[in-house]
Every structure is written in structure tokens, then in C-alpha cells.
């Protein structure tokens, strides 16, 4: 008698395999359904939340005022200026409160409104860090860093300080103004180098080695050099600088991003028709200024670099700017031992104080080491101040008087 298996009917083993296969397929189908309905949304929820500035800009992009859509935050500064000029005082205050981080970083917004908005944003960031100081989910180091940031924000909120830009995300960025930017006829911008962030924006010990101290002493020196000149100085740390002497420090990526941000800041300065601008670029900041040089606003008349690893150019004229190029280096500055070359994107090019580069070389007498150029009583700071106020023929050169050749 012929068995069912011989007629082609499934064997018990075949039935078992088929049942297992169907159970597996059914389980996979359930998993896919769960992913489609809940799992993928859970994955989406695990994505990092937008940083505070991005969130504020996104809200700004959807906002209105007086029945009008708010302009694109990436609009040219002159368009943003026209928009803000059309608003009432109460409308300006409302925007500063509602979109504090966005308004505080809008190039083209009135600087007084930016100061107000950044004070509000700083206070909010201070409260966030105060809570994080006691967050048990953080490591002791994390709570300590939260405390440091909280104290930094408290400092920036003190004494009516004029914060032109503020971003608490990541290591953070900031810019501070000394003097009256709205009416200044001479504006100086200090562009710092590596390891600059919110925590190093100012220092208690050796304060003049940090951006705030550099700008403060430069402002005081300019007031001494020309009391009748209306000046303002910006401590500009509104870019993400390299951390330490690593790959970021020997390549131009961070400088490119910084150059874009520097140009945007300069394009948004008030009183542009009447003011002249000088850039004072230290260490890696000189790389930023070198990359930015070929597309700077015409108001930038002078670029002075100190402790420079190079400006990503072989000659001053290669920078593509009509601004005068000044350079200085202290004889004890370790940057002199860094090879000035550019090989496959590594290195930043020729030494700006070399005779072949073609910069106007200033005296740095009295400066001590790589970070001592802004110390009171030094020839370096005095020379910076004279460049800042336009007293160019009275600077002291770094050997001879070649640096003043051709100046009226």
C-alpha cells in the first residue's frame, strides 16, 4: 500500500519546518508593524534635540509681528536693519523676549536690542546650568562643568556688560563690546586663537591672555592714544576654534567657518558708512583673518596679526585685500619654531613677519611669549592701539622704519 508520503503529502518533519517558518514570518510581521507604529517614532525621539539657538531660530522662522511674517534670519544684514527700523519700541522688546537667542545673534539687529536679548538668553542659560549642578544623572565632572558655566554666565550678566553674541550650545561662543559701537568712528575687533570658548572667554588669572582682557586693554590703550576719537572694541569669540594643537589647529577647516562668521559680523556692524574697522588677530585667529581677507567689507582698513602660524598665503598681496597688513612676533614666542608651510592642506603658509611675506612688521617689545601681546606697557599693545585709532605714522617698527613707508 502506498503511503501518503509516497504520494507527495508532507511528512511530519516538513509540517514542523513549515509551521516554524510561518511562525517566524508572523513574528517578523509583528515586529515590522510595531516599528511602523511605535518603533520608528521611538528612534526619532532618540535623536538629539535641537540646540537652544537652533530652536530659537526655528521659532523665529515661524513667527509674526504686527501681522507680518518675520524675515529670514539668514537675510542680508541691511534687510534685517530695515525690518527692525520699522518696529516700535514695544515690538522690539517683545521680539527680544520671545526669541532671545535668535535676536541676540542677528547681524543687522540694533545692538541695544541684541544686548537686551542676550541678557535674557544668558539668564535662561544660567538657570539651566544651576539645575544641572544638582543633577544626579551627571558625573561629578559634569556637575562641576555645569557650575563653571553657571558662574561664567553670571559674570557675563554683571555690570551692564554689552554682549553682542551668545550661544550656549556645545563649548559655546560669545562676543562682547567695549565702548559705544553705535557711534564709534573706529572699531577694533579682537579675533582669538585656539582653545577659545565660553569658559576661556575671560580669565581671572592672567586676564589679558583671554579675549575679554585683550579687548578691554586695547580699548583703554586706544582711549589713551587718542582721547578725542570715538572708539569701540569687540572681543570676538563667535566661532568654534580648534581645541588644542591637533589636526584642527594645523588645517584650515575651522578658519573657513570662522571667516564666514567674521564677515557676517562685520557686515552687520552699525554706522558702517562712517566707521573704519581694524582686525587684531592672534595665533590661529590670524588664520581666520587670512581666510576672510579677500571678501571683507570695504570698511576694514587694517589687519594686524600677532603670534601667527601663517595666514594661508605666501605673500601679503595674495590675501586679496586692500587692507594694510601688519605683523608682529615676540622674540620668545614659541610659534617661531612652528614650520611655516602648507603641504596638502597641513600648515598655514608663509611666516607673516618674514621679509618675503611683505607685511608691515611692528615692534613687540615687552610682550612675553605667545599670549603676552595685549599686556599694558608693552610696545605691542601701544602699536595695536595706534593702528586702531589710525595714528599709523607713530607706530614703532620691528627694526628700522620700513613699516611706516608710504604712509601719509
From TrEMBL:
Keywords, in A-Z order: Membrane, Transmembrane, Transmembrane helix
InterPro entries per record: DUF1023
Superkingdom of origin organism: Bacteria
Protein name per its UniProtKB record: DUF1023 domain-containing protein
Transmembrane regions listed in the UniProt entry: 20-43
Location of the DUF1023 domain: 168-342
Amino acid at each position: 500500500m502506498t503511503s501518503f508520503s509516497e504520494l507527495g503529502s508532507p511528512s511530519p518533519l516538513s509540517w514542523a519546518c513549515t509551521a516554524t517558518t510561518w511562525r517566524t514570518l508572523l513574528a517578523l510581521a509583528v515586529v515590522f508593524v510595531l516599528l511602523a507604529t511605535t518603533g520608528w517614532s521611538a528612534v526619532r525621539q532618540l535623536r538629539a534635540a535641537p540646540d537652544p539657538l537652533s530652536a530659537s531660530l526655528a521659532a523665529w522662522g515661524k513667527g509674526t509681528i504686527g501681522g507680518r511674517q518675520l524675515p529670514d534670519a539668514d537675510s542680508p544684514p541691511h534687510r534685517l536693519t530695515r525690518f527692525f527700523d520699522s518696529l516700535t519700541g514695544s515690538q522690539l522688546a517683545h521680539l527680544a523676549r520671545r526669541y532671545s537667542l535668535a535676536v541676540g545673534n542677528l547681524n543687522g539687529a540694533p545692538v541695544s536690542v541684541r544686548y537686551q536679548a542676550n541678557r535674557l538668553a544668558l539668564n535662561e542659560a544660567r538657570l539651566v546650568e544651576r539645575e544641572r549642578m544638582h543633577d544626579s544623572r551627571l558625573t561629578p565632572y559634569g556637575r562641576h562643568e555645569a557650575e563653571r558655566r553657571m558662574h561664567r554666565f553670571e559674570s557675563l550678566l554683571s555690570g551692564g556688560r554689552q554682549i553682542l553674541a551668545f550661544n550656549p550650545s556645545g563649548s559655546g561662543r560669545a562676543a562682547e563690546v567695549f565702548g559705544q559701537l553705535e557711534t564709534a568712528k573706529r572699531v577694533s575687533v579682537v579675533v582669538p586663537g585656539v582653545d577659545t570658548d565660553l569658559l576661556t572667554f575671560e580669565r581671572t588669572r592672567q586676564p589679558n591672555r583671554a579675549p575679554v582682557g585683550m579687548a578691554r586693554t586695547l580699548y583703554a590703550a586706544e582711549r589713551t592714544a587718542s582721547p578725542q576719537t570715538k572708539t569701540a572694541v569687540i572681543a570676538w569669540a563667535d566661532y568654534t576654534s580648534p581645541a588644542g594643537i591637533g589636526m584642527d589647529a594645523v588645517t584650515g577647516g575651522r578658519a573657513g567657518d570662522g571667516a564666514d562668521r567674521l564677515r557676517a559680523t562685520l557686515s552687520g556692524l552699525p554706522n558702517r558708512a562712517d566707521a573704519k574697522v581694524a582686525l587684531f588677530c592672534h595665533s590661529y585667529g590670524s588664520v581666520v583673518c587670512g581666510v576672510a581677507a579677500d571678501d571683507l567689507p570695504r570698511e576694514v582698513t587694517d589687519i594686524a596679526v600677532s603670534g601667527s602660524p601663517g595666514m594661508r598665503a605666501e605673500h601679503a598681496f595674495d590675501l586679496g585685500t586692500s587692507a594694510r597688513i601688519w605683523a608682529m612676533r615676540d622674540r620668545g614666542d614659541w610659534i617661531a619654531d612652528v614650520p611655516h608651510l602648507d603641504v596638502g592642506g597641513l600648515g598655514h603658509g608663509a611666516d607673516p613677519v618674514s621679509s618675503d611675506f611683505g607685511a608691515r612688521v611692528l615692534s613687540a617689545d615687552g610682550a612675553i611669549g605667545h599670549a603676552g601681546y595685549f599686556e599694558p606697557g608693552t610696545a605691542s599693545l601701544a602699536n595695536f592701539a595706534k593702528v586702531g585709532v589710525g595714528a599709523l605714522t607713530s607706530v614703532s617698527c620691528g627694526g628700522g622704519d620700513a613699516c611706516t613707508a608710504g604712509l601719509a
